[in-house]
Each structure stands twice: as C-alpha cells, then as structure tokens.
C-alpha cells in the first residue's frame, strides 16, 4: 500500500513510519525543510534512530517538502 504520512520526523510519527516500512508499505512523508535535499536528510536521521542498519528501509520512503 502507498501511504502519505505527516509528522514522520516527530516522536509518534517515526514509530508509525517504522511500522509501515516493516509491513512493506511505500511511504511518502511530508517533511518540513528548506528544500528536498534537507528533507531527505531529516528522513535519513529518523531512519538512523530507528534501525542500526536503515539501508533496507531507505528505498521504501520518500520525502515531500511542505508544511501543514
């Protein structure tokens, strides 16, 4: 399933992100950042907090820059 997730870099959102990726879902995350590169960097930080080796999960998530 493809899921659009807001708050993925927050405390609760990162846990939701983890469960979705472990389940095999494709996640598009809305990330507050100056540009796309910074948004991807924030996602990389979150993945690094969630897993010792986040590489298997990196392909399952992409960032969209924005603010709600």
Describe this entry's structure for a reader.
- The protein has about 70 residues and is of the alpha/beta class.
- It has one domain.
- It has 3 helices and 3 strands, in the order βαβααβ.
- The protein has helices spanning about 10-20, 35-50, 55-60; strands at about 1-5, 25-30, 60-65.
- Strands 1-2-3 form a 3-stranded parallel beta sheet, covered by helices on one side.
- The termini are far apart.
- The model has no long low-confidence stretch (mean pLDDT about 95).
Give a nutshell description of this structure.
The chain is an alpha/beta fold. The protein is built from three helices and three strands.
Features:
68 residues, alpha/beta, 3-stranded parallel β-sheet, 3 strands, globular
Overall 3D shape: globular
Helix content: 40-55%
- Mean model confidence by pLDDT: 96
Gap between N and C termini: 23 Å
Going across the biggest sheet, name each strand in turn.
Answer: 1-2-3
Number of H- or I-type helical stretches: 3
Please mark out the parts with pLDDT under 50 across 5 or more consecutive residues, or reply none. Answer: none
Structural class category: alpha/beta
Number of spatially distinct domains: 1
H/E element order:
EHEHHE
- Number-wise, the strands total 3
| Cα radius of gyration in angstroms | 11 Å
Tell me the major beta sheet: 3 strands, parallel
The fraction of residues in strands falls at 15-25%
């Amino acid at each position: 399933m493809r899921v659009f997730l807001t708050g993925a870099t927050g405390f609760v959102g990162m846990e939701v992100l983890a469960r979705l990726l472990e389940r095999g879902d494709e996640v598009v995350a809305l990330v507050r950042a100056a540009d796309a590169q910074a948004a991807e960097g924030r996602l990389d930080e979150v993945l690094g907090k969630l897993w010792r080796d986040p590489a298997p999960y990196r392909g399952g998530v992409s960032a969209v820059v924005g603010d709600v």
